[in-house]
Specification:
six-stranded parallel sheet, alpha/beta
């Protein structure tokens, strides 16, 4: 029997860690796929393809043409469309799929969360008097907050927000995690932030802003996950490796 062929839909730290582990396996030939939304992604230890597949139909064709034995969805917890396409493509083309997705953050005593279902809900939650808002949801959907131009925004993202928000008061920070709790506390305090807008991404790299908001008594508009139901999901790289060995017969 030849090597097992695995396609990893990437976009998270866990995807990178899984790739590092699979790169050492002589019985597996894995490929990583990046959506191409990050301007300068870090190199990965496996063969890498960049760009979309052309929806579920394109992914079905790719899985068949490349004779993929297993599909792993290790995309960002909010890459809902890609995850839905992965589930559909698995159903139609045969190879099993499972998700690798770190657990979301859970509300703790002292947290002042306003939970919303999506970015549109977060925008609506900011309706009202002018406040200083720390917007930390990435660049792609930040522009929706132009609908609430009364606020003063501090926007942090890995890559520049293009086009910029159509609001009179907005400042941008380019940075990537992990972030330190002390630094995040100073950032929120020195900028007089009244509301933090965040996605419930989970993990440790960007949690510091949530802890800082709790310590300062600042409200957090938390955009919760809406991943499609039905796909089996594990929360750690170790669990993913165990599941791979369960699904794929010994080579």
């Amino acid at each position: 029997m030849g090597k097992h062929r695995i396609l990893i839909l990437s976009g998270t730290t866990e995807a990178r860690q899984l790739a590092e582990r699979l790169a050492l396996r002589a019985d597996i030939e894995a490929t990583i796929s990046l959506a191409g939304r990050t301007v300068d992604p870090k190199p990965l230890p496996l063969p890498t393809r960049v760009g979309g597949f052309g929806g579920a139909d394109g992914l079905v064709d790719y899985l068949a043409n490349e004779r993929i034995d297993l599909l792993i969805d290790a995309t960002h917890p909010f890459a809902n469309r890609i995850s839905a396409n992965a589930a559909t493509a698995s159903e139609r083309s045969g190879p099993p799929v499972f998700g690798l997705c770190r657990p979301g953050w859970e509300r703790q005593e002292g947290d002042r969360w306003i939970s919303v279902a999506d970015v549109a809900g977060a925008v609506k939650a900011l309706d009202g008097a002018s406040r200083r808002v720390f917007l930390a949801i990435g660049r792609q959907e930040a522009g929706q907050f132009s609908a609430m131009p009364q606020h003063a925004y501090l926007v942090r993202s890995v890559d520049p927000v293009v086009p910029p928000l159509e609001v009179p008061d907005c400042r941008y920070i380019l940075a990537s995690g992990p972030f330190d709790a002390g630094d995040e506390t100073r950032l929120l305090h020195e900028n007089n932030i009244a509301v933090v807008v965040s996605k419930n991404s989970g993990g440790a790299a960007t949690y510091a802003k949530i802890a800082a908001a709790r310590a300062l008594g600042i409200k957090v508009v938390m955009i919760e996950r809406q991943k499609p139901a039905g796909t089996r999901t594990v929360g750690t790289v170790e669990a993913a490796l165990e599941l791979i060995d369960q699904i794929l017969p010994p080579a």
